[in-house]
Amino acid sequence: MKKILITFGTRPLAMRIAKKLTGSFEVLYASSEDIPELLLKSGNYMPIPKGLLPTFAHELLKLSLDQQVDYVLPLGGFELEPLAEAKVLFEEYQIAVLVPDKDILGTFPIIENPPADLPYVLLSKGKNLLGDDVAELAADGLLVRSDSEEDFALVCVSK
Fold this sequence. Notes:
The structure is a single chain. The protein is of the alpha/beta class. 26% of the residues lie in helices and 26% in strands. The chain has helices spanning 12-21, 37-42, 56-66, 80-85, 87-91, 102-105, and strands at residues 2-7, 25-31, 45-47, 71-73, 96-97, 110-112, 120-124, 127-128, 141-145, 152-156.
């Protein structure tokens, strides 16, 4: 079974996405926020540095390699840019970072802390990991469609 690492793993958004992935993926969580001791002892939660630190991408790559992760889903708004820049490095180790490429990242509007009832799509090269459909957008990331169904917005917990 493939593994996915979700950052900001103690937040409700991470829990909602993980619930949708259960059965298809082994879900691991990481966070730069305080993680309760009980969760750390479960072995599914790991501390990571803040996304603003220069070592963030390398520390996350090391953790991903140690845990044999196939996908990394960053949910922190300030994690998006450093990981978009490091996507090629992760791909060298067969790890897909689910964030749009750095050259198109700025073209997406961002929705912070979205309501629970939005219909999310989790794209990896245009394939929706939350379902069988394929989006016409060959991008990566946790997205929601606009009301017109033509555009997408990137979803994160905070910026």
